[in-house]
């Protein structure tokens, strides 16, 4: 059974994350899960203490109801301090397999998927992070893996399967031949045919790696195009109807070079689907 930590700011967005965790725990017949709420301690001690008491009271009142839905009652944790540090400590403390969060906007976790907080949590905990973007109406029906030729992309696909978030018959793959490289090719006077050959080579290499993982995909389920990663992934999401995006990361580079820095932020900030961000194992 997987162990789940849900980071919540008590907002409606976090409620979506809690409900996704309920669905995951219920599907495996119960299991260990926790709700973690972090309160910024940069305020008078009396004010912080009141916030702690209010949050504990609210979450404890919800825990029994959630337990009835999920098949096991979640542990409630309310902590004060720096969000990323406490999330990592909480995950390690319970031996969590998955961190589930909502698409936070107005909280101590508001920058969770923009910049250093995401990188710190993923790098420090080596914990897959599931960002839940909307109401939970059903289990994930189709996953899209954003894949390059790195080992981390293959690990992300495998982890998504191990966590029960997708299966080989319910996934598609998207990969991009960077347009910057395409511009260099064209300026050098090399024909577009060379660029097309690069695209076909990438496709064949991906097919070989997928075959090694036991994933034989039809042509329609493997999209390899020239363009920006966000453009290619956006089109693939539309074509496949996927409701979960899977991204692999490098421990020392933050998000995989397939999605360098701001590209990952744009993907996670503009796409409506849920996203699983998977770092390499520690």
Automatic annotation (TrEMBL):
It comes from the Bacteria. InterPro entries: Rossmann-like_a/b/a_fold, Universal_stress_UspA, UspA. The keyword ATP-binding applies. Residues 3-132, 140-279 form the UspA domain. Keywords: ATP-binding, Nucleotide-binding. One of its GO terms (molecular function) is ATP binding. The keyword Manganese does not apply. Signal peptide: none annotated. Belongs to the universal stress protein A family. This is Nucleotide-binding universal stress protein, UspA family.
């Amino acid at each position: 059974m997987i162990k789940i930590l849900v980071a919540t700011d008590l907002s409606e967005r976090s409620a979506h994350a809690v409900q996704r965790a309920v669905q995951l725990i219920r599907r495996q017949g119960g299991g260990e899960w926790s709700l973690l709420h972090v309160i910024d301690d940069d305020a008078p001690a009396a004010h912080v203490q009141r916030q702690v008491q209010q949050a504990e009271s609210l979450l404890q009142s919800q825990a029994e109801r959630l337990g009835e839905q999920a098949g096991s009652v979640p542990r409630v944790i309310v902590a004060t301090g720096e969000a990323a540090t406490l999330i990592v400590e909480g995950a390690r403390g319970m031996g969590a397999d998955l961190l589930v969060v909502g698409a936070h906007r107005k909280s101590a976790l508001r920058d969770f998927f923009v910049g250093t907080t995401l990188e710190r949590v993923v790098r420090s905990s080596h914990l897959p992070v599931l960002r839940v973007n909307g109401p939970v109406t059903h289990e994930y029906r189709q996953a899209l893996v954003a894949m390059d030729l790195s080992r981390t992309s293959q690990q992300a696909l495998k982890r998504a399967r191990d966590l029960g978030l997708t299966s080989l018959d319910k996934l598609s793959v998207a990969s991009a031949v960077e347009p910057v490289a395409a511009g260099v090719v064209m300026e050098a006077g090399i024909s577009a045919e060379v660029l097309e050959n690069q695209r076909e080579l990438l496709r064949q290499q991906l097919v070989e790696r997928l075959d090694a993982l036991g994933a034989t995909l039809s042509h329609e389920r493997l999209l390899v195009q020239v363009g920006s990663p966000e453009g290619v992934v956006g089109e693939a999401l539309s074509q496949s109807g996927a409701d979960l995006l899977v991204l692999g990361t490098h421990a020392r580079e933050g998000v995989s070079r397939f999605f360098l820095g701001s590209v990952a932020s744009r993907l996670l900030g503009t796409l409506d689907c849920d996203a699983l961000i998977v770092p390499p194992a520690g």
